[in-house]
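Journal club side-thread
Mid-discussion, someone asked how the predicted structure for our own chain would compare to the paper's figures. Pasting it here so we can look after the session.
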Amino acid sequence: MSPAKLIVSIENQEVSLLDSDGATIQTYPVSTSKFGTGTEEGSYQTPLGNFIVSEKHGENEPILTIFKGRQAVGIYSPEEPSEGDLVLTRILWLSGTDPHNTNTKLRYIYFHGTNQEDLIGTPASFGCIRLRNQDMLDLFNQTPQACPVQINL
């Protein structure tokens, strides 16, 4: 069953998939911004409010695929140290639907897998919502394009 809505809790560092009756289908731990919440361009903060999944990227790519500019550019190897915040596995690209967060898509705010799975459950991202790679694969497969998303404190 596809979720009717995704709800992200900044406080709990988790995303819940809800069905059309509002019942929780599944919950995954996430990592939101280490810079807190906000919508200012260049702030690296996670925006709050209402969104939709405007685009999905990475379908049929292998798990741990590295994306740059939403294009597959290689496969991440956990044995090799990697600096920085890699966008891995899949991308759910958000568009804001509230007046205060309409710049979300231009800020490139995604749900995506990460090379820093050890930080999941703590605020550590640069604005995006990171998941463990297997969880990102599961979330991607269950989430239709245009699925509503709510990000709350």
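Post-session note: The beta strands are 5-9, 14-18, 24-29, 49-57, 65-68, 71-75, 87-96, 110-113, 129-131, 148-152.
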